[in-house]
Design brief:
The structure is a single chain. The chain contains five helices and two strands; from the N terminus they run H-H-H-E-E-H-H. Strand 1 and strand 2 form a beta hairpin. A two-stranded antiparallel ribbon has the order 1-2. The protein is mostly helical. It starts with a helix and ends in an 8-residue tail after the last helix. The protein has a single domain (5-159), classed as dinb family like domain (Four Helix Bundle (Hemerythrin (Met), subunit A)), CATH 1.20.120.
Length: 167
């Protein structure tokens, strides 16, 4: 758990960088990949967790500008990636400016239970990580090579000389 705002910012930046690499690997065509015929598209999922950053933080008292045109999923992968970069940087700045280390131990009602602000911030990261995992599956289904987030992708294992990569 985060004891200082700096602790959170370090993890936020590390996870944002990994998410950025996943988003930077998207193509406009890949945004149309669906989980199932009536399900969300890859683009919808990516746009959801991107535009959710200011919505989530605002709900818990961090003042941030909402994403422009958040109700409409862009048809441009670059626009989604650029918006994620912008909002993740703005979130870092807003938290650094508006919360102190003492703020992290304060509690609020979150999703029907009492949570510390540190838990709430961890929840935001977990939300993005959850959806990032969904993206990596859809990226593969769209015929693209996914970025190896916490380890190499199948192709990267082969490039590292591993004949039989872990399944």
């Amino acid at each position: 758990m985060y004891v200082t705002v700096t602790d959170f910012i370090k993890e936020w930046n590390r996870e944002a960088m990994l998410t950025q690499k996943v988003l930077d690997g998207l193509t406009d065509d890949s945004l149309k990949q669906q989980v199932y015929p009536e399900g969300r598209t890859l683009g919808r999922i990516a746009w959801h967790f991107t535009t959710n950053i200011p919505d989530y933080l605002s709900h818990f008292g961090v003042r941030m500008q909402r994403a422009e045109n958040e109700e409409n999923v862009p048809s441009s992968a670059k626009e989604i990636a650029d918006t994620f970069k912008k909002l993740s940087e703005e979130a870092e700045l807003a938290i650094e400016q508006q919360w102190t280390d003492d703020s992290l131990s304060q509690t609020q009602k979150a999703f029907g239970r009492e949570e510390t602000n540190a838990q709430i911030l961890m929840g935001l990261i977990k939300h993005i990580v959850h959806h990032r995992g969904q993206l990596t599956i859809l990226i593969r289904q769209a015929g693209l090579k996914p970025f190896g987030v916490y380890g190499p992708s199948k192709e990267d294992w082969v490039n590292l000389g591993v004949a039989n990569p872990p399944q």
